[in-house]
Amino acid sequence: MNYQRFFEDAIDQLHAERRYRVFADLERIVGKFPRAIWRSNGRAQEITVWCSNDYLGMGQNPDVITAFQGVAGKMGSGAGGTRNISGTSNPLVELEHELADLHDKEAALVFTSGFVSNEASISTIAKLLPNCLIISDELNHASMIEGVRRSGAEKKIFRHNDVAHLESLLQAAGRERAKLIVFESVYSMDGDIAPIKQIVELAERYNAMTYIDEVHAVGMYGPRGGGITEREGLADRIDIIEGTLAKAFGTLGGYIAGTSA
Fold this sequence. Notes:
By secondary structure, the chain is of the alpha/beta class. Helix content is 36%, strand content 21%.
């Protein structure tokens, strides 16, 4: 077996299928949002980044940068290990309290990314619930789909934002079976917003849990930036709210918020 040739052939196949990706080598410029320096083949050129998820430029906000510098100066640049091994960083504890308060929930849990928070949370919750049926919007993000897959639970897909189709699936499952409805608030590829109130009402009628992904809405909607659920006064009726710190908040990481349990 020629291992090197095997991987070279695999890369050649990606090129042939026009699926090989070359990432833009970018260097953002503080104070000139959304400008950046693009480096390629020894050349450097200033460009505008139109596709950044740093919606509000918070990643360059002077107060955010000063806070990062202050904490790094006092505590160092790393955690020193996992929470299991070396404990939880106090700023993360404070952040989790603040995120819980943002969504009017009892508690929050921070993860390394929004992808990981969806994948881990959906899979864990559905595994814990006996004979759980996951009912998922057909346009849910890949991280949610991966969480559904990893759970091993039975799944049903409802047509995008189609509450009538969702209700038919809930009816068929029956009130007594454990059910988890997973959906997003703002769908980034289409730019539309879920009918959250109708979904919540169906969940309450048919005894289902709700899990909403607010990653494209936190920091952008609601009086305090709690997302669409806050804007529409529905946060208290959603069981689990998932969000990210890597978009409107301009840093990194993901989280969920819900009851302490």
